[in-house]
Amino acid sequence: VIDFTGEYGWLSKHSYKLARAGIDSFLNPLVLGPHVALEVLGATVSSVWGESFTPIQAEVLREALRASRDLFEVAERLEVVERRDPREDRRNAAAAVLRRLYFIVHPALTDGKAPLEGRIVLDLSTVEGEATKIALALTVLEYLYRAAYAGSWSGLIVVEEADRLRGSVVLDRIADELRKYDTHVWAVAHSLAVSKALRGARHVLVFRSRDYAVKELGLDVAYTSALPPFHFLHLSEGGPAGLHRAYVPLEVLEAKRLWVPARPVPYSAIAAKYGLDVLELMRARARVRGLEDVLLRFAKRELLKPDELRRVRELPELEGKMPYA
Known about the structure:
It contains 13 helices and 8 strands.
């Protein structure tokens, strides 16, 4: 379950594993290769801002992706191009890409891989920023797409708020190509405009909706907008619409009512409190993952073991910057 808002964390009470982005779940698009990372970033920019990279912007970004291990390194290389490249058009292109990339980079997009085993809720509400959430969702979808093709994974992918991914084609590819690999998608959206492939899905459930796109299914928006609560229309492979009532067990309703989603890790507030650049803070956080306990003891002037002290000293960006710790 790809959960943008944190509303499905209550499923952790019902045999699902909760993976919180940027806390205990990390997804690096560059692990899939620079060409896939370029697709993820391009689709993110399209989904959030309705823009696309120009050829020269794609060129300088592709070069940075090929030479980098994560998006923080990509940003650093683009900053060098912006300052030092002899060609003005390349400097301008790097600056334009950076203006969008700064809204995407996050420690959650550093080394890691998509959790693939068992029932999982990927909670994206623990990161700040719409662009970062979309980049994470697209990265896990790309992981699953390739894993299904390789025969190492099959299952059901549930995408909540799927209309946020309107600039991406990976949902279409999964819906079009992976049925024969026993991999399927449930997409929950406010509009049928989310995906060309999903509009032709084997099963379409329409709850109360004022979306005029329902006309494409032969439905009257006046009718769909007046559906009672918990009722929906079921269209199956072009057949007539049937009206049904959804049954939701009381224990599920109660679990959802009592669930309190986690708050995002407040990088912006922490940076403002200590007078730090938020990108530098996130970059440092990404570099020290796994050393949290050691750094806290270091900050408190507690005695460290020799190997712990060595690992801290290998982090030059933290030299003299105790607020990071």
